[in-house]
Amino acid sequence: MRLNRRFHRALGAAAALGLAGVGLTAVPAQAAEVQIDVLGINDFHGRLKADGQSAGAALLAGAVDELRAENPNTVFAAAGDLIGASTFESFVDQDHPTLEALTAAGLDVSAVGNHEFDQGYCDLVDRVIPFIEEKATQYGTEPWEYLGANVKIASGQSTGCDHDENLTESWTQTFDGVTVGFVGAVTEHLPELVSPSGIAALDVLDIVEETNRVAADLKAGGADIVVLLVHEGAPTTALEDAVDPGNDFGKIVTGVSADVDAIVSGHTHLAYDHSVEVPEWVAEGREVTARPVVSAGQYGYNLNKIRFTYDTDAADGAGAVADVESDIIPLTVQNDEGAWVPNPEFAPDDVVAGIVQKAVDNAAVLGAEKLGDITADFNRARQSDGTSENRGGESTLGNFVADVQLAAARITDEDTDLAFMNPGGLRQDLKYAGTGENDPDGNVTYQEAAIVQPFANTLVTTTLTGEQIVQVLEEQWQPEGASRPFLKLGVSAGLTYTYDPDAAAGEHITSVSLDGEPIDPEGFYRVVVNSFLASGGDNFATLADGVDTADTGQIDLQAMVDYLGANSPVSPDYAQRAVGVNWVSDPGAVYTPGEEIAVDLSSLLFSAGEPVDATATVTLGGIEVGKVDIDPAAVDTTDEVGRAQVRVTVPAIVPDSAKEATESALVVELPESGTTVTLPVTVDFGDDPGTDDGTEDGGDENGTDDGTDDGTDDGAEDGTDAGTEGGADENGTDDGADENGTDDGTEDGDELPDTGSSGVLWWVIGGVAVLAIGGALFALSRRKGNAGGTGGPAA
């Protein structure tokens, strides 16, 4: 593309090789063996400052300087995500300090990562790449090249960018007559990971196919060595996973052609240094039969180093790789006290240190502004190791941000009903503990809030039906092949739901309620989400199908700023807004004294140090029938932390107060967290001597109605509920009554005559799960027919 200045500046090498994107050409030497080093990083994410294991940009640059001094035949390369999801010092200035620091550090080439597209393709080609070129001129270096061989502008499409061109596919550099070529590619999951609207004109193509095509072109054009820079990575550090064709990375490792001599990878933030045998090389009898497959981890913790020894006088006269070595070079090490300190083998680069300090000083002024106060931590969910983020778990932070965004949306669209928040948009916890005299406990600064949500998404409102809301919640279970199996949405207060964790795909959600009322599948609800979700990001495609969609013009970070200013101090809500319910006994059965009611509950607790209930109290008809233990262990990638096996026996005697209740249920209460789960069941307590003479109010001893009833049943809501609560049909008449209101002695679904002495309590039909939070009771049966109530406004 036009931005590839190296192509124009290296005309001699380009003419000799006929290659696009050719880099600087060193003066050839006639040595029989040439050693070429490739230094690699990935997933730097704007970690400018030294912080713990993160070495910082200055030490990274110093290490590259020293290793280059040892061998001038060195390429400094990267596998993407150098910017985006950055620390505040870089984020607050649109990652310009990171781009400047890496330019001054002499970065040569990088694959694009998904975070390079956070602000859309036009931001990358119209702002990021030109800024790199500007800074390269300032520092007297060559601008480093961003490569993306598998990202193409779709046929017939225009990006609308000033630079409406494809990214460069490859880049080369020649040392002592030996040419090294680089191919760049980004994860095929890119459309799920960034706002789809920002890359709408792009096609994301198969990594293996595009790599093999470009690698073949490079070799045909004279490249002696080809390195793939790919923003995709192994799921673990184990070699067997890196070569498993059943995962995304294994498909790449086993699928790229013999033209590829090494793979530098990223995306999964893991450090590994593998050597993978290439069958074609073995068959050809090559001296080197395995290719390096490496990753440096994340945040400037390490450098990958691959050393190729190329024999220019090979036996066949064609030249060949005679040896290859790879290693992970740590940029920080642990001292005797276990603290991370800079690797003493390297010294910080002074120029880059100045860039970092300027960014830190600028951020200190902007970031110190106080926004408000919190009374406790707002955390993301955690995996079972207690530290790693779990995007599959409900979190106090996710729910809080949804609350904030709902409040913000109502400023411009007062009819907004609810909010969803994607877990990947939350990059750091919001902590109660202060950092010093100027940041006391509970204080929330602009910097702290900005790091939580660094993507500068706008808030978008759209209208969905109740059925679509259920579908959005179903989409938390991600499609096969997605980067994570489950993504738990933060939801605003008032939206609560139950789910069956063991149900089939598309059938997990069992109830949804808004402000204590079941949602109407055919009703209309105004929803606010960030612009990433609004365009279907993270595979939440239904959110892109809403109508009357409007951008509020509010930035997510500004919404947080305003909310804290107006509502401080803010406290986390520890009650669950979603609970897993898996019936063991029959939820639709009529239980009698002595029978066991059995149900398994999950998602009763948070996972990041929030209050934990060791036991829950169980009541039936208002009478305590037992306590159950709660297992607080987290289950990785899921929301199943806080599991309880509820097993209770229906008592033989209950007080009249319980028998007289029009609605009662099996209730599981967690006093510390405030979560209450109410499970409707049907119980026949049997004969209760001394209650009455066998007649019901308004009927004679034969159980017949005198016909004067207005036709409504205690369980019907004004006679309009099509859901037949308490046995009322859509006209408000009892299912057991004829048009004149006479009762034949049977209830809907009960073949036995009601004599008025059975003591049956028809609490709620069907065993539909009900969740009570903060005293609000709600239930929803998943209705697939027409809605019983009136709909919302026309779409």
From TrEMBL:
Residues 678-755 are annotated as: Disordered. The chain crosses the membrane at residues 760-780. GO terms for biological process: nucleotide catabolic process. SUPFAM superfamilies: 5'-nucleotidase (syn. UDP-sugar hydrolase), C-terminal domain, Metallo-dependent phosphatases. Pfam families: 5_nucleotid_C, Gram_pos_anchor, Metallophos. Keywords: Cell wall, Membrane, Peptidoglycan-anchor, Secreted, Signal, Transmembrane, Transmembrane helix. Residues 749-785 form the Gram-positive cocci surface proteins LPxTG domain. Residues 1-31 form the signal peptide. Residues 685-720, 727-753 have a biased composition (Acidic residues). Residues 38-269 form the Calcineurin-like phosphoesterase domain. GO terms for cellular component: outer membrane-bounded periplasmic space. GO terms for molecular function: 5'-nucleotidase activity; UDP-sugar diphosphatase activity. This is LPXTG cell wall anchor domain-containing protein. It comes from Jiangella aurantiaca.
